[in-house]
Amino acid sequence: MSTNDTAGNPNVRQTAAELATGDRTDTLLATDDLRKDFGGFTATDEIDFSVAEGELRCLIGPNGAGKSTLLNLVTGSYSPTAGSVYYNGHDITELAPHKRVQRGISMKFQVPSVYSDLTVRENARLPIQRFADGDERRRRVDEAIDSAGLAGYEDVDASQLSHGQQQQLEIGMAAALEPELLLLDEPVAGLDVAERETIAERIVRLNEERDIAFVVIEHDTDFVASIAEKVTVLHNGEIFREGTVEEIESDPEVQRIYLGGEK
Fold first, then answer.
1. 145 CB neighbour count, 10 Å cutoff
2. Number of Cβ atoms within 10 Å of the Cβ of 161
3. Which fold has domain 14-103+229-263?
4. Alpha carbon separation from 142 to 72, 92, 126, 160 (Å, rounded)
5. Which keywords does UniProt give here (predicted)?
6. What are phi and psi of 183, to 5 degrees?
7. Local confidence pLDDT in tens for the 263 residues of the chain
8. Which of 10, 159, 179, 250 registers the highest number of CB atoms within 10 A of its CB?
């Protein structure tokens, strides 16, 4: 693993992970030449991707661009074919998914996975009970329900919630783990305009009030514009463009491959 002398102290050497994401940087997450092959198909290829502490980033791109694969590599759900994942000064490439959660990475998947026969409170308690008990557990459960906008629904079965409310519940549950980085895979898919606006407000609030960094996969460009500080465009498993929402929306090549411009 490559190393460099630490600035100001030539007797201390840093690992590649510390150089990329350590205390001397503002970078929380970084990937280095990350590749994932499925048989003869390369889903992500030499991805160099980074997220700063407290940043709110969106990932966009056509279907099959590698967006979900990238998040699954970050969470450890997939093992990379090549490359490394660095987080908060550590190389987590080989770290088990639950260990990554303990380090501060949480994820909400595209399809809600709440238990329909459990109440809102029971669902909120499930991920938290592994990490907290007593008063601390109760505090986190209450925060999860509050951040989901479901105060008053504590004893309602999840099956009685709308699809949008279930999405909000899962975001609240993921945030209750008190992560430094929260990954969301298409959190507003299938929702109406009002529900999308509600979830956008909750994401921005969690980012601002709890300083949680977000990486959000989304196809809805209006939603992306309402939350993102920076946008990364994936295409054919590679990073195609990065920039502000305005830069991405005005880029003719992005329009051509993704936003419906001329072919």
1. 24
2. 21
3. Rossmann fold (3.40.50)
4. 28, 31, 13, 19
5. ATP-binding, Nucleotide-binding, Transport
6. -105, 130
7. 444 444 455 446 789 999 999 888 999 999 999 999 999 999 999 999 999 999 999 999 988 899 999 999 999 999 999 999 999 999 999 999 999 999 999 998 766 678 899 999 999 998 888 888 899 999 989 988 998 899 999 999 999 999 889 989 999 988 888 899 999 999 998 899 999 999 999 999 999 999 999 999 998 889 999 999 899 999 999 999 999 999 998 999 998 886 554 43
8. 179
Amino acid at 49: F
Which residue is it, tokens 């840093």? 14
Q: Which residues contact 207 (CB under 8 A, 6 or more apart)?
A: 54, 56, 213, 214
Rg (CA), the chain: 19
Check if the beta carbon of residue 88 is closer than 8 Å to that of residue 30: no
Distance, C-alpha 169 to centroid of its chain: 16
Question: How far is the C-alpha of 207 from the C-alpha of 193, rounded, in Å?
Answer: 21
